[in-house]
Amino acid sequence: MDEQAAPPAGQRKKHTRARQAGPNGGLRAGRRLELSGYAMIVLSQSRTKGLVRDLPRLVTCGGCPTSRCALHGGARMQDCKRVVAVCLSPKHRLSKTPALEIRAVAGLGIEGDAHYGTTTQHRYDKRKAPDRPNLRQVHLVESALLDDLGSRGFDVRFGDLGENIVTAGMSLTALPEGTILRIGAEARLQLTGLREPCVLLDRLRPGLRPAVGQKGQGDKPFLRGGVMSRVLATGFIRPHDEVTIEMPAPPHRPLGNV
Q: What burial class does residue 174 get, using C-beta atoms within 10 Å of its C-beta: 0-12 exposed, 13-18 middle, 19+ buried?
């Protein structure tokens, strides 16, 4: 039987572009991408070019639920300090959108995010004290918090709580003020404090604000599993990046609300 002749090269390229491109030239739902340096991830419900609207809630190193981390020296998963997801939003709103990578810029924050700047970008604080240093450049949340909320019936996904970075393998709120997180090849973040649960959380999901709250110093509520930080060194941050903790010199001070 004669083999079927291959279509002209121009037609093959056009067909490939049609399969891989979604609405408006963006990423199509279900497309598998080679994410340089880390696992293959299946994108689902992607509607915006360069952004992922609905990453799976649970992502493990290597992209599969194994007990050992293949990317980070075979460490046990519970001991592997790593980034699970990254998010940003150019507008001031509660939730942020998951992305394939974010760029942390020294002294400023996450490039393209609403809280990017040397002075406070929080809408209320900006009106009250516009020259106040920005101690909320980058918001981090433990994946354990999202898992707990899910087990209690809350449909909370990456970025819904306003976080820029979701981490696993460490207790962020137990770290002292001034702790430095080395993430990936170059980025360095310094922890500045805790986040007070926003009133908008209950608008996102009824009952969510008390579910994420915990009493801290002086009985002030804070978002359990969530911390704020500022950027010390510029670098890209991606899912599956390893996180190294550098403790500050003693005496250590616990994180307080900022």
A: exposed
Question: If you ran DSSP here, which 8-state letter would residue 249 be given?
Answer: S
pLDDT digits (tens, 9 = 90+) for 149-207: 999 999 999 999 999 999 999 999 999 999 999 999 999 999 999 988 888 899 999 99
Domain over 77-246 is classified CATH 3.30.43.10: no
| Structure token pair of residue 20 | 């891989």
DSSP 3-state of 146: helix
On whether the pTM is more than 0.85, the answer is no
Please, is 26 exposed, middle or buried when counting C-beta atoms within 10 Å of its C-beta (0-12, 13-18, 19+)? Answer: middle
Residues 6+ apart with CB under 8 A from 26: 46, 47, 48, 49, 50
Task: Write the DSSP assignment of 76-135 as a string of letters.
Answer: BGGG--EEEEEEE-SSSSS--EEES-EEEETTTEETTSTT-SSB---HHHHHH-TTSB--
pLDDT above 50 for 84: yes
Hey, what amino acid is at 165? I
Beta-sheet pairing, 235-237 with 226-233: unpaired
Domain parsing of the chain, residue ranges: 77-246
Question: Quick check: helix, strand or coil at residue 37?
Answer: coil
Whether 93 and 115 have beta carbons less than 8 Å apart is answered as no
Work out the pLDDT band at 10, boundaries 50, 70, 90: very low
